[in-house]
Amino acid sequence: xxxxxxxxxxxxxxVVGGTIALSLLLPRPFSWWPVWGWPLLGxxxxxxxxxxxxxxxxxxxxxxxxxxxxxxxxxxxxxxxxRGEVESALAYQRRIEALIREQRPGVLRDRLExxxxxxxxxxxxxxxxxxxxxxxxxxxxxARERQRVPQEIEQLSARRxxxxxxxIRGELDRxxxxxGRQWETLRLLDAQMKRAELRLEKSITALSTIYGQIxxxxxRDVGSGRSERLEADIREEINQLDxxxxxxxxxxxxHVAAVQVAGRDDR
Length: 267
Hints:
mainly alpha; Substrate Binding Domain Of Dnak, Chain:A, Domain 2
């Protein structure tokens, strides 16, 4: 991606356009000038631009940040609140990156850059959590299940009480057990999603706090351990988001399995 940026810089366009124009309009400005002179100079110019792009750490950081924020595009999220939280996370990331670029080269800047590198994982988790919530909130099948499954359990329980045939009662017990698992996993999923909403809000607040702390860090804090504690706080937040996302995925898989079993038992 950095190479793509280098090739499509405006300077590259000037070199390519100038090479073509000079090759057509002034192919031999001097009698000794070879016909391949302009293409050669143009090629050397492109090589210089590419090399300078690849070795420019600040430009590369800006390009990677732009590409990252394009990858996690908040406009893909339909819920306005969730979209706003992702936009806030991306905005804090941009501001933190800008603050770090303003620092003078040295130990402090190196440590802050190491800290900022972790923000990509943090924002990626925020985006994944927001998109998961967005899909969940608009899942019509889950909404129907919340209404239908309790009614089905109530109806099956009433039917079992009326049923005199032991064989049929045994079949109804089996169906009730699978429906119960389906309802339990649905309730667990609902509970985790409520937790995810709170966690997402808390995570954005934590990003705001991190931004404020980076603003206050100075060169005197290099040896105080303040930057190390900041990095540890970020890692802890990332781990908590990882755990929550993994938990949601596990419960979602359990729910899908419970729905499949309940569907077979219904037949």
